[in-house]
Amino acid sequence: MAENDEEPKKSKGFLIKIILFVVGGFVLIGAGLGVGYMLFGAAQPDPSEQIEEIIERKMQEAEAAEQEALDNATAQRVSKDTPEVENFVTIYYEFPGTFTSNLMGSRKMLQVGVGVSTQYDESIMEMVESHQLALRSVVLGVLSEFGEDDVQGIAGREKLATAMRDAMNAKLESLEDFGGVAEVHFTSFVLQ
Fold first, then answer.
1. How far is CA 40 from CA 25, 26, 50, 176, in A?
2. Inter-residue contact 115 to 187 (CB < 8 Å)
3. Which of 13, 82, 87, 121 is such that its CA lies 20 to 30 A from the CA of 182?
4. Are 90 and 181 in contact (CB under 8 A)?
5. Residue 185: how many CB atoms within 10 A of its CB?
6. Domains of the chain by range and CATH?
């Protein structure tokens, strides 16, 4: 009989342990959910509302700064009369491709991209385009007359551009009785 009395006590203790573990688990889960809600779920502001508030504040600041700048600018600005100067429109034309030529007295080669400009009407550029073959020949001839030292630096490039302009105008005058090229521009300039 002693054995039978121990079994109900063991089963009661075992049942109480299970109930405590289940209740304790629920308590822990509830506490975790409560803490999580307090940290992450309680009254989080809507991001779109925050963005709208930031935008409104920035716009108000910008308007205030603009108004301040206007107040300061009107006090300091004095307009000047612009001189009446007759300006002419500059027209550009770029030769397709590049020009490559050996330099005089050197083993090096010069490769340039060339464009021209004028302040006359479109007829000058039409002449340049229609006589492109002859002008390309003129440009290559001028390039071959320059040495390596002649094209060094800005002064050398300007001297080369002036020689090209003069040669092109001379060729156009012989073909069309009028030159009209005002400037020669280098779109690329490679010395190899």
1. 22, 21, 17, 85
2. yes
3. 82
4. no
5. 15
6. 91-191 (3.30.479.30)
Count the neighbouring beta carbons within 10 Å of the beta carbon of residue 112: 23
Q: Give the pLDDT band (50/70/90) at residue 143.
A: very high
Whether the pLDDT of residue 188 is over 60: the answer is yes
What are the C-alpha distances in Å from 89 to residues 114, 119, 184, 188?
20, 6, 16, 24
Cα dihedral 107→108→114→117 (10° resolution) = -90
| Segments in the chain forming alpha helices (H) | 2-36, 47-76, 122-130, 132-144, 153-176
pLDDT of residue 1: 47
Alpha-carbon dihedral 68, 72, 78, 84, rounded to 10 degrees? -40
* pLDDT tier, 75 (very low <50, low <70, confident <90, very high otherwise): low
Q: Which of 75-89, 99-113, 151-165 is predicted least confidently?
A: 75-89
Q: Would you mind telling me the total number of residues written for the chain in this entry? A: 192
Residue 178 is which amino acid?
F
Q: Take residue 43 and report the two structure tokens written for it.
A: 């009254």
